[in-house]
Write a structure and sequence with these properties.
This protein is of the alpha/beta class and 215 residues long. The protein has helices at 2-8, 20-24, 61-74, 98-107, 135-185, 188-192, 194-205, 209-213; strands at 15-17, 34-36, 50-53, 77-81, 110-112, 126-130.
Length: 215
Amino acid sequence: MLVEGLRDLGVEAYGLDASEYALSQAREDVRPFLWRASATEPLPRAYEIIICIEVLEHLSRSEAESVLDNMCAHTSDILFSSTPGDYREATHVNVHQPEYWAEQFARRGFFRDHDFDATAVTPWAGRFRRGRHSLPVVISGYERRVWHLEHERVELREALHEARAIADQATAIAEQATAAREALLRTRTFRYTQPLRSVLDRLRQTPGTQQQHGT
């Protein structure tokens, strides 16, 4: 469990889970720091950071909003992830794209920290922090992120065009070589020398022939 890993690193971590079975799988020394509860229930204290990984897609929209309210009321720093896909999972009843959750956090005064890379958690994870900056600074952060993504997209598109041009050139060369070979096969010289080539092929396949004939 996450709390186990954090405790092993010396972090004063606590956790809750609605599943009694999940809690029973924790190590004995970690269980005092865990309790059974719904994420919609008020937390007992404030925390430096709250981590919510792949939870809200399993709740109804109203329950998810209650969890967001609960978390935002008890911290100023949230590491968050909720799958934007996997609709085949029957328990995924509240799946949304990352921008939906970013809007929900923004409505509560939390904004994505673009200088923090949360993709080690999931490709769509993000760190949301209570607004510590003015609106112009927040917009600047979003624009910086958009610019990097746009620049990367342009470079990838140019690289793709170059790769396609090289592939087209290679295809053209291959087609020219094929046409030249087919033209050669149709010439009289090729047809008339066929018996000689057959003899040479048999000679090459005979052991010691290359040394004797110098071929």
